[in-house]
Amino acid sequence: MAAKKKPNKRTRKSSKPRHTKEALSMAAAMGGYKEGYKVDKKNLTAGGSPSISTGDAVARALVGLGVDELKKVAAENSFADRFAGWEKNLNPGQLRMNLGNVLRGMKRHDQKVTVNGKAL
Questions:
Q1: Residue 106 covered by a domain
Q2: Measured between alpha carbons, how far is 33 from 103 in angstroms, rounded to an integer?
Q3: Alpha-carbon 79 to chain mean position
Q4: Residue 13 covered by a domain
């Protein structure tokens, strides 16, 4: 009689439950944020999908801007060096999202935010 093979790590089933209480509560918490996003079918991503954003003033100002234009916005708001670090690893949509998040944070802390010379 041949001995049974022991399954390797890739095929071995985990003894831990897949859906922990913490993961389920986090998913429920995150579900509320989805309602705040807008799907903009007029403005498409580079891949051809509809643009999805919060629809606030920052998102409206950044929609449709290319990487070079985003770079100018970052320089205009004094964090071009930070943007340069992102540019190495992120795609244009991720760059726009990160830039928008930083600009929103600046607004939240009552700092001056401008996009193409216009104050937001």
A1: yes
A2: 19
A3: 18
A4: no
pTM of the model: 0.66
Contact status, residue 58 vs residue 107, Cβ threshold 8 Å: yes
Is residue 109 in some structural domain?
A: yes
CA–CA separation, 92 and 59 (whole Å) = 14
Cα 82 from Cα 13, distance rounded (Å) = 43
Helix (H) or strand (E) holding 119: strand 118-119
Asked if the structure places residue 2 within a domain, the reply is: no
- Give the pLDDT mean for 82-102: 90
pLDDT digits 0-9 by tens, 96-116: 989 999 999 999 999 999 998
Nearest-angstrom CA–CA distance, 54 and 66: 19
* Domains: count for the chain: 1
Q: How far apart, in whole angstroms, are the C-alpha atoms of residue 30 and residue 27?
A: 5
Give the domain extent around 98: 35-119
